[in-house]
TrEMBL record:
Cited function: ATP-binding RNA helicase involved in the biogenesis of 60S ribosomal subunits and is required for the normal formation of 25S and 5.8S rRNAs.
Name of the protein this chain belongs to: RNA helicase
Annotated organism of origin: Ganoderma sinense ZZ0214-1
Domain Helicase ATP-binding positions: 44-228
Source superkingdom: Eukaryota
Amino acid sequence: MPDARLVDSKATFASLSHILDARILRALADMGFARPTLVQSKAIPLALENRDILARARTGSGKTAAYCIPVVQKVLNAKMSIAEDDDKRQATRVLILVPTRELAEQVSAHLRSLLAYCGEEVIVANVTSGTTAHLQKTALSDNPDIVIATPSRALGLLQSKNLTLALVESLVIDEADLILSYGHDEDIRQIFSGGYLPKMFQSFLMSATMTEDVEVLKGLALRSPAILKLEEDED
Ligand code: ADP
Ligand code: MG
């Protein structure tokens, strides 16, 4: 559970029912998420207006759900507006970049919980976890809606054309302060400059601290972002 001081005591997830699918609200209730944290209550409505998001909030403030909830909602929205038999219905719409396999596992588990009531509607593929090239290829062959990868893995799969981002609507960089220090710098640059991404998509940059690295990523990834800085809520 997040620190009580990080929770938005004026809001509940139920009060977001005008923008969040009932299946997500039900899953959140099962997960014991009653009130959003401050970063969640700021990020979710802005993200659903398609704003780019730069969120700096300390560890434990709930940044995972702050981007997972809106991207899942956006996938559901997209599917609602596309006919069952349209080829574009099943496509990778979200790429989540993380610095480590461990974090990829956590994000993947969080998404599975959020999607508990969505059946097969939204497919998630974590392509980091020690899987072979063959398994990754199989995981990607049905164009999962949401792909979780380290930057090097994502770039390799883009270069081998096993991953396509032509229909991506959201790109998330989690633990942005760590991701460059893990040596992912060049890979991220190539993901952005290699012609893999469509003209328009939304970016999220999630970070516990504002480092020079995060400033570099901000220049690379964000267009007039909503900047959510929550350090004023700390001690
Ligand atoms: P961060 O990425 O900011 O470090 P996490 O997203 O990992 O934080 O969340 C920290 C913990 O708080 C996790 O165990 C998560 O399940 C829990 N949590 C996040 N948001 C809520 C919420 N609104 N209500 C209850 N628990 C929450
Ligand atoms: Mg985190």
